[in-house]
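note to self: dont lose this again. the chain is below, predicted strucutre after it. 146 aa total, dont forget to put it in the shared folder this time
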Amino acid sequence: MQIKVKKFHELNLDELYEMLALRSEVFVVEQDCVYQDIDGKDQKALHILGYKDGQLVAYTRCFNKGLYFEDASIGRVLVKEDQRKYGYGHVIFDASIKEVEERFQVNSIKISAQKYLTKFYENHDFKQIGEGYLEDGIPHIGMIRS
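---
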């Protein structure tokens, strides 16, 4: 998988369209969750895009500390459904951690994780914090890596 890292203003129209389409495919259609994906935060994010054979198959968006949470953060973590069996989730998430730590010079990253993915994030040295909560009708838990 080829990784591209771009600020919002560096995305071309095709990349932006692919990114928004894939986020909608996974978070709105697949998870059957009606929510406002376009939330005005993309312009402040660092976008990590994973391509296989020229097709966007994995994605995250990352924030410096203070832009989303008090800590730096990674969100909108996804892999296209038919590509999950290849371990691309780990590849895109490792690339995201590396970019956050190097670009933002931070030692702590906070995420809002879907509860069923807790083990996935624990494999990347994240630990649960606080109580679980519902976000857009889906159980979540705060997690931190420090």
